[in-house]
Every structure is written in C-alpha cells, then in structure tokens.
C-alpha cells in the first residue's frame, strides 16, 4: 500500500505541482481514506520527499539502461534528453523549480543525491566521447563536468515551466557538446540536431 501511495502521489505531484496537491486529493484519487495515508506518512513533506526519491531512483535506472545500450557519447546524451522529456511530459511546471520555491529543505536534501549521479554521468560520458574521438583529447574533464552541471541546474532552478526548461536544456546540451567536440563530434552533433528537428 505504501508503494501505491508513493506512486500515485508522485504522478499527481509531477502533473499538478507539489504545492497544489493535498493529502485529501491523493486519498480521493485512490478511493482510500486520508487516515490510511497518514498511517504511512505522518505529513505531506515526508510523502513529497519519498516521491522525489522514487523519481530520482527511476531517473538513475533509466540512465543506466541507456548507457548500457552502447550508443556513442553524443547519441547517448540525446537519448537521455529524450528520456527526460518523456518522463516529465505531463508536468506543467518544472519540478525542481517548485521544490526549491516551496520545499527548500527537501530540495537541499535530494539535490545532493542528484548532484553526485549527474556528475558521474557527465564524467563517464566525456571520457567515453574522448575515447571514441568525438570529443577533443585535451579536455579539462572536471571543469567541463562542473560547467555543464551548473548550466543544467541553473536552468531547472530558475525556469518555471517544464517545457521552457526542456527547450533550454537542449540548447545547453548543444552548447556543451560544441565546446568539447572534435570534427567528427561536430558531424555527429549536427546529425542528432537534425533528428531532433524532424521529431519535434
């Protein structure tokens, strides 16, 4: 039951926002009593935190699945972008923006988990791209990880609408890859951007 509540809450929070959804709304949607929810979660903050952790876990698993598929480094980045778009397609306002604004303590708590996963993912991608000859060999890997990470988090923390955040993230990804790409990498990047336009 606990997992069912987290799942439903997660879906409702993403779709309609952390602030606007109440425990009553979740109970009503699930056709259970509010008392049942309070049996597992003493308050809404705890439910939000567990829901966000579940989203974090799903993101991590999906990234691992994509990485295991042996795309080249640039393709992999675009696949991960597509996955994010798919995962958050029902979200109207950016989940990170909302959390930071309305639940800063929860935001700080989950952010530290997200940071380490993102940095590791970005770092692995850069190393992979260098080995494939798609990124330049002389890159300062740690700084590029930090640059990209700062860009992405700034966009998410300060952009209210999820679709605007996704547009900007795509531009940030192009910017990031152009800054690192070898000639072969530029060719691959242009190919991916063209595919994006066709699928838009």
Automatic annotation (TrEMBL):
PANTHER family: ACREF/ENVCD OPERON REPRESSOR-RELATED (PTHR43479), ACREF_ENVCD OPERON REPRESSOR-RELATED (PTHR43479:SF11)
PROSITE patterns: HTH_TETR_2 (PS50977)
Top-level taxon in the UniProt lineage: Bacteria
Lineage, top ranks: Bacteria, Pseudomonadati, Bacteroidota, Flavobacteriia, Flavobacteriales
UniProt DNA-binding residue ranges: 22-41
Protein name: TetR/AcrR family transcriptional regulator
Residue ranges of domain HTH tetR-type in the record: 1-59
Swiss-Prot/TrEMBL keywords: DNA-binding
InterPro entries: Homeodomain-like_sf, HTH-type_Tx_Regulator, HTH_TetR
């Amino acid at each position: 039951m606990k997992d069912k509540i987290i799942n439903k809450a997660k879906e409702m929070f993403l779709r309609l926002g952390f602030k606007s959804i109440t425990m009553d709304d979740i109970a009503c949607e699930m056709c259970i009593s509010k008392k049942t929810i309070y049996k597992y979660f003493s308050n809404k903050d705890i439910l939000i935190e567990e829901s966000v952790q579940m989203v974090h876990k799903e993101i991590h698993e999906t990234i691992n699945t994509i990485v295991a598929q042996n795309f080249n480094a640039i393709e992999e980045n675009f696949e991960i972008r597509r996955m994010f778009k798919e995962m958050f397609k029902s979200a109207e306002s950016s989940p990170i923006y909302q959390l930071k604004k309305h639940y800063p303590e929860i935001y700080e708590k989950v952010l530290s988990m997200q940071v380490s996963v993102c940095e590791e993912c970005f770092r692995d991608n850069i190393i992979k791209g260098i080995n494939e000859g798609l990124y330049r060999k002389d890159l300062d890997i740690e700084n590029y990880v930090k640059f990209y990470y700062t860009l992405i988090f700034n966009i998410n923390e300060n952009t209210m609408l999820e679709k605007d955040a996704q547009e900007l993230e795509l531009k940030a990804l192009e910017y990031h890859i152009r800054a690192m790409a070898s000639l072969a990498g530029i060719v691959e990047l242009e190919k991916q951007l063209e595919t994006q336009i066709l699928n838009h």
